Amino acid sequence: MENTYKLLKTDGLAKRGELHTVHGVIQTPVFMNVGTVAAIKGAVATTDLREIGTQVQLSNTYHLHVRPGDDVIRKMGGLHKFMNWDKPILTDSGGFQVFSLAGMRKIKEEGVTFHSHIDGRKIFMGPEESMQIQSNLASTIAMAFDECPPHPATREYMQDSVDRTTRWLNRCVIEMDRLNSLPDTLNKNQMLFGINQGGTYEDIRIEHAKVIADLNLPGYALGGLAVGESHEEMYRIIEQTVPYLPQNKPTYLMGVGTAANILESVDRGVDFFDCVYPSRNGRHGHLYTRFGKINIFNAKFETDSEPIEEGCQCPACKNYSRGYIRHLMKAKEMLGMRLCVLHNLYFYNHLMGEIRDAIDAGNYAQYKKDKLECLKTYDS
């Protein structure tokens, strides 16, 4: 199986593509639904994900390593069999989680020593270990192990960090090639995406993009954004950096974001996204509609017999009223949270379909303008 990205169309800088993988074709731009521990928070099953149009599910290397253990998942036949999902899965490298444990970790050239947030045991993870864990998980796409520097960081710290991330990426490439060549590897077609870092330093970002682009990897990500900088700063970095990443490869903006963030980033050449917003907000009763965001706890919905959004084809809107879902949330019934998460994920997946259609039609600029006007009441 050859992993290939086909650029089907461009509209300005917006890209419309297909990523062919061993687990199926991903139509881009795409939003990856976040299932950190091999499940979407909010009692959402993989059978639900199929119903709401999910293309890619994202899971977390660090969390699955500490529980239940990547060795356990390997014995179960890999992550796809473990969670009953036959479409693509992306696993992040564990880097972000490891580096978020600032008081519990120590960085060396070899890798990072840190303590499990579950039982406190000492764990070492470097590029080779991250690749080995992700190979055991047998995900479709594995992310390179990188350092996620804090924001803000000094130029000196950032440059040292990015240089280390480059060295680690080269080690990831060697180890991934080795693992994919072994006879007992579960997914010998596992793809490796490299990660661009550099904080809000444009020159460091650009130089790093040039260096990693030379490795000719199956895809590239922008990491270390949406960590405290303004949206304007983030858009500036995307604009400056993306032109130095290969246009004929997927470009992934990690951990972003709101509907407005996605619309703006697509316009700057990004075509892969993930974020916990739709599921997290759904669990708190904040629901996305094409006319803005609503809080289902508002008293005005107590006797509202309309669906969350008229015309929406998600399982919640096709079957239940705002009044009933509000009651479930007030009563802390899990069904309420589940229906809210399903609606929000459906909204995001459907938004990406609209974006793809607009690029196909060559009218993305007008679509973005009209959509942003509708979304003014959203988080942005």
TrEMBL record:
- Name of this protein: Queuine tRNA-ribosyltransferase
Q: What's its EC?
A: 2.4.2.29
Q: Name one GO biological process term.
A: tRNA queuosine(34) biosynthetic process
The tRNA-guanine(15) transglycosylase-like domain covers: 14-373
**Which residues of the sequence carry a binding annotation for substrate?**
D92, S93, G94, G95, F96, D146, Q197, G224
Give the CC-aspect GO terms.
cytosol
Q: Fetch the NCBIfam families from UniProt.
A: Q_tRNA_tgt, tgt_general
* HAMAP family referenced in this protein's UniProt entry, alphabetically: Q_tRNA_Tgt
Instruction: Give the reaction(s) catalysed.
Output: 7-aminomethyl-7-carbaguanine + guanosine(34) in tRNA = 7-aminomethyl-7-carbaguanosine(34) in tRNA + guanine
Q: Name one GO molecular function term.
A: metal ion binding
At which positions is Zn(2+) bound?
C312, C314, C317, H343
Q: Which cofactor does it need?
A: Zn(2+)
Against SUPFAM superfamilies, the record matches this protein to: tRNA-guanine transglycosylase
Which residues are the active-site ones? D92, D274
